[in-house]
From TrEMBL:
InterPro entries: Haem_Oase-like_multi-hlx, Polyketide-peptide_reg, Thiaminase-2/PQQC. Residues 124-236 form the Thiaminase-2/PQQC domain. One of its GO terms (biological process) is thiamine metabolic process. Residues 100-109 have a biased composition (Low complexity). It comes from the Eukaryota. The lineage of its organism: Eukaryota, Fungi, Dikarya, Ascomycota, Pezizomycotina. Residues 99-123 are annotated as: Disordered. It holds the Pfam family TENA_THI-4. Transmembrane segments: none annotated. This is Thiaminase-2/PQQC domain-containing protein.
Length: 253
């Protein structure tokens, strides 16, 4: 399951060894780096109408501003998150470098050097696993010109709410095993630093705020009923795609 994977239970009980945690974190960092471009693509979809100071803002104007604020917050958060990754890695001796393409547990695929570049509409890296690359490709698709802001925000909310629920599930195991550097296979990185950060009330409030913008954007979908159903149907398909990828993003344990 995307939010109750066995990896999460072992993480909550301090049983994830450093090599496995390092491999997963290296992929999560690639995901986070692609997230930056995804936020940029979503921001480019926002159109703030020109209005005089005396004009009364419409609901669509208000929602656009809310979406803009959320996306700016998301960029700020991900910059903090990337620094957090590096600081905790140094503190606990975790290796966030590239995985070996021969490592079965990392499931890397090797890409020729000439393909190791950013192409229009697609980000490639020779350290991404197939699932990580699929996630990156989904972000680029959800941010493309053919995709609405609503759909892109649904993808953003889906990724964040799955992540929050997953780590809150892991947090439920924190008190079920002895704590401490000697007791934890990773020295305590997950239970002391990562899990509290990813299951926090602050993160939960951020996810809720994204959900509110999604609801407001959905309320503003106009046109014929059939057209509305088509758009909302695409949103459901995006949600299902995120859940499918999330379940497979966790390492086998």
């Amino acid at each position: 399951n995307a939010t109750t994977h066995p990896f999460l239970r072992l993480a909550g009980t301090g049983k994830i060894p450093k090599p496995l945690l390092s491999q997963w974190l290296s992929q999560d960092r690639l995901y986070a780096q692609s997230y930056v471009r995804f936020m940029g693509l979503l921001l480019s979809k926002i159109r703030l109408p020109c209005a005089t100071p005396t004009s009364t803002p419409t609901s669509s104007t208000s929602t656009s501003k809310q979406a803009m604020n959320i996306l700016i917050d998301a960029l700020t958060n991900i910059r903090t998150e990337l620094d957090f990754f590096e600081n905790v890695a140094v503190e606990y001796g975790l290796d966030l470098g590239p995985c070996s393409s021969s490592s079965s547990s990392c499931s890397s695929r090797e890409i020729p050097e000439e393909e190791e570049k950013e192409e229009e509409g697609k980000f490639t890296t020779n350290t991404a696993t197939p699932i990580t690359q699929a996630y990156i490709d989904m972000f680029m698709s959800a941010g493309s010109a053919a995709t609405s802001l609503l759909e892109g925000m649904v993808v953003l909310w889906a990724t964040e709410v799955c992540y929050l629920r997953a780590w809150r599930y892991a947090a439920g195991f924190l008190d079920s095993a002895p704590a401490g550097a000697d007791a934890d296979a990773d020295g305590g990185a997950l239970r002391n630093r990562f899990i509290p950060n990813w299951s926090s009330a602050e993160f939960g409030a951020f996810v809720d705020a994204i959900g509110e913008v999604v609801d407001d954007l959905a309320e503003e979908v106009g046109g014929e009923e059939k057209k509305k159903e088509e758009i909302l149907g695409r949103c459901v398909r995006w949600w299902k795609q995120v859940v499918w990828l999330e379940e497979r993003f966790w390492p086998d344990v």
